[in-house]
Automatic annotation (TrEMBL):
Signal peptide: none annotated. It comes from the Eukaryota. Transmembrane segments: none annotated. GO terms for molecular function: endonuclease activity; N-acetyltransferase activity. This is N-acetyltransferase domain-containing protein. The lineage of its organism: Eukaryota, Metazoa, Spiralia, Gnathifera, Rotifera. It comes from Adineta steineri. InterPro entries: Acyl_CoA_acyltransferase (IPR016181), Endonuclease_Zinc-binding_loop (IPR008704), GNAT_dom (IPR000182), His-Me_finger_sf (IPR044925), Homing_endonuclease_His-Me (IPR044930).
């Protein structure tokens, strides 16, 4: 049995939002930096194949040097707070990894394992300096394991994935995802219009819908660490003004909606969206919008009467950072909205 609950905290006066302009400075790129930004993924693969064939280095690849996955038995014996190695999660032994250039947004090649002479494609990636350096402090997947008792077997209670292996976090350069989420939750709690799904049997939160109230005159200084994703979302509104579309000064924004994997396909996402719509009616907000980042969330919004007003193809927006988002289910982001 699940229950939709409103996410609230004791009311307190709203702080005045800071107003400021976003200034983007174009950094001068070195030759290696420029090369990484202009070469396509297909060209890079062809170049890789030519180099491997020419130097006859394929014999150095050992397919057994890294395990492709951890089995259930291995997971169950992980207890306490001791860190454990995970596939493709080895840290560099060097203090600093080689770079092509420094500065925000610069790119470099990262080696994802410590095996000598490994040149496997899946263990080499081009990414930003910030993500590359953050690997040294990454502890991989964090698991909370409940040991076996007389009445129950051992089981995984909480699993927090490594952000370097989470596709959206990696592609969208969420270098500080915890701080990013904290800021979203802070705004959501302040506006008191978010909802969660609570499983009364297991006594745990299984779904969340973080909402905020946006006003026509809102202006924000974008944190440099979160610049890429927030600038990307702002581009969704470049060709349309939803405040003019719905003739209003305020809109409800569904920023994040997510359901635990084991609880999906039960319509909980639809219920969270419905609860948000009903709340918007109560507080007399005339419109509600969201950025649907994949086909699954898009279908949920369309079932609740949302229409698509604009869209951005990920690879058209940035062929370097979003190159991996080519699956038909997550190849574009759509701006959806409806009146209330």
């Amino acid at each position: 049995m699940t229950k939709i609950c409103e996410l609230r905290r004791p009311p307190r006066p709203k702080k005045q939002k800071k107003v400021g302009a976003i200034e983007v400075k174009e950094e001068k790129r070195c030759a290696g930096q420029h090369f990484l930004h202009i070469i396509s993924t297909d060209d890079a693969i062809r170049l890789y194949d030519i180099m491997v064939e020419k130097n006859n280095d394929i014999k150095l690849i050992n397919d057994e040097h890294i395990k492709p996955e951890l089995n259930r038995e291995q997971l169950e014996i992980m207890t306490g707070t001791k860190p454990h190695d995970v596939p493709r999660g080895s840290r560099s032994k060097e203090e600093d990894l080689p770079v092509l250039s420094t500065g925000r947004g610069s790119m470099q090649a990262s080696h994802l394992c410590d095996s000598m002479h490994c040149i496997a494609k899946e263990h080499i990636v081009v990414e930003s300096t910030e993500v590359n350096q953050s690997r040294r402090d990454c502890r991989g997947i964090t698991l909370s394991i409940k040991p076996a008792t007389t009445t129950s077997p051992p089981h995984i209670d909480i699993a927090t994935p490594c952000r370097h292996e989470e596709p959206l976090a990696k592609c969208l350069e969420l270098n500080e995802p915890i701080d990013f989420i904290k800021n979203i939750i802070k705004d959501a709690l302040q506006d008191q219009c978010s909802f969660v799904v609570y499983d009364m049997q297991t006594e745990q939160l299984v779904g969340v819908c973080l909402n905020e109230i946006k006003f026509v005159d809102d202006q924000h200084i974008i944190n440099e660490k979160n610049y890429f994703i927030l600038h990307f979302l702002n581009q969704m509104h470049k060709n349309i003004n939803l405040f003019q579309q719905f003739q209003t000064n305020s809109l409800l924004h569904i920023f994040i909606i997510d359901i635990l994997k084991n609880y999906r396909d039960y319509g909980l996402g639809l219920q969270l969206i419905s609860a948000s719509i009903e709340h918007a009616k109560k507080i007399h907000v005339k419109g509600i919008y969201a950025e649907a980042t994949n086909i699954y969330s898009l279908n949920c919004f369309k079932q609740q009467g949302f229409q698509s007003y604009d869209q951005i193809n990920y690879t058209n927006y940035d062929q370097i950072r979003l190159a991996n988002l080519i699956d038909s289910h997550e190849s574009r982001c759509q701006l959806v909205a409806r009146n209330v």
